[in-house]
Amino acid sequence: MAAPVDPSTPIPDAKLNRKVIAISIGAALGGFLFGFDSSVVNGAVDAIQDEFALSDALTGFAVASALLGCAIGAWFAGSLANKHGRIRVMVISSVLFFVSAFGSGFAFGVVDLILWRVLGGLAIGAASVIAPAYIAEVAPAKFRGRLGSLQQLAIVLGIFSALLSDQLFANTAGDASNDLWFGLEAWRWMFMAAAVPAVIYGLAALRLPESPRYLVGKHRNDEAAVVLREFTGEADVHLRIEQIQESLGTDDKRSLKDLRGKTFGLKSVVWTGVLLSVFQQFVGINVIFYYSTSLWSSVGIENPFLTSTITSITNIVVTIVAIMLVDKIGRRLLLLIGSTGMFLSLGLMAIAFSNATSEIVDGNDVATFAGNWDTVAIIGANAFVVFFGATWGPVVWVLLGEMFPNRIRATALAVAAAAQWLANFAITMTFPIFADIGLTFAYGFYAAMALLSLVFVYFRVPETRGMELEDMHDDIIVKRGKFVGAITVNE
């Protein structure tokens, strides 16, 4: 057991900042796995379809199957984290993802490939819950937004890294279907490359301190005091522990029953988290990343891969901008700006494609635009990435990590994250259907979702900048972006 901490012992701010940044980066590596896995399959999909002679429908399911695993992994991560701790769930996730990487690389048929992809999805779903919860629970309130945004930065870096590694393997072999090393095709090496970040994540997790909120819940107050003092920088750790104990209540057991409320069976704050997650996906961001090469080809771009890479780099840059702003201007204002910008940019794309006709060129469906509407489509797509990457991308993860009360945080975040993965799956699977109807319809639908997200944020999402986790309420009433009143924990 750790020795009691003397709260009067000064710790330099610079040292504190380095420590909390380091452990937040370690936790956010789970987001890197998410980004890497969601993008790595794109370089392998054509080769997989040829290798196993798959129909388009089965190919699409093989690609999206990991998302179902993510939803399941997210759903159970909260209860596992409450029972066994945040760090153990991180380590389990890294092991599952490591096994999935090699299983996918050595798959001998589509059935086992799907099973391995689902296994990897379980790991990613769990990591997507634990990272924001853990970062929120160890970060000082004044730095929590910036540190929580590291999750999204890790995601976009993972997407970019997978994009580059896929291209490297494909170029080295001449094609993703060609043999590369040891008689294995390049697409298999694309999947096995994911084992590297899995190992790094697992090793990093083993060096992280446990969440102080979890430790207090397990009556390990001395250990919690060490983390609160050395990493979070609490001046009076004993007072903070008392506040955490009060917010957790007297019942050590945590379950989905804790989320029950009067608003359609759930607490109001849980519905807010769920809808934030759903809107983040229903604006269609993953259409840009999953189908970006096809999109750029359809508007006549000669080097769609290069354009996709530029889009990915843009996403990284604007995420850094979000990290700089989230603790200065707040979460709510960023979301409102993002919703407005996404609505306008997606609307531009819808209008642009309404001024295009479709024709088959070299076997590909290419859009021919009247006038300069192709330029408008490209501007709209990149503006959409900028507005999403600087606002809804990172800010939703920040809010999900901090907006729930201590006693339900892990469980509520698990439900919200599971909803996000299901929404991701729905958007991924329906885009080809929407595209068949027409890209004007597809981007018009996403624009409508962006407009609805604006209304939702204005009326339902409070500003949480600078609030302590112990001040978060079970149910929220929002007026002018602030919490108004609170409903007691025992509804």
Q: What can you tell me about this protein's structure?
A:
By secondary structure, the chain is mainly alpha-helical. It has helices at 13-51, 56-84, 86-105, 110-138, 144-148, 150-173, 186-192, 195-206, 212-217, 221-232, 237-248, 268-282, 285-290, 292-298, 304-325, 331-354, 373-402, 409-437, 439-460; strands at 179-181, 184-185, 260-263, 356-361, 364-369, 478-479, 482-483. It folds into two domains: 15-208, Growth Hormone, Chain: A; 256-462 and 470-491, Growth Hormone, Chain: A (Up-down Bundle). Helices cover 71% and strands 5% of the residues. The strands form three sheets. The chain has a two-stranded antiparallel sheet with strand order 1-2. A two-stranded antiparallel ribbon has the order 4-5. The protein has a two-stranded antiparallel ribbon with strand order 6-7. Helix 2 (56-84) packs antiparallel against helix 3 (86-105), helix 6 packs across helix 17 and helix 16 runs antiparallel to helix 17 (373-402). The chain is globular, with a radius of gyration of 23 Å. The two termini are 37 Å apart. The model is unreliable at 1-16, 477-481 and 483-491 (pLDDT under 50).
The CATH topology label of the largest domain is Growth Hormone, Chain: A
Tell me the helix content: over 70%
Low-confidence stretches: 1-16, 477-481, 483-491
Major sheet details? 2 strands, antiparallel
The helix count comes to: 19
What is the succession of H and E elements?
A: HHHHHHEEHHHHHEHHHHHEEHHHEE
Give the integer mean of the pLDDT values.
79
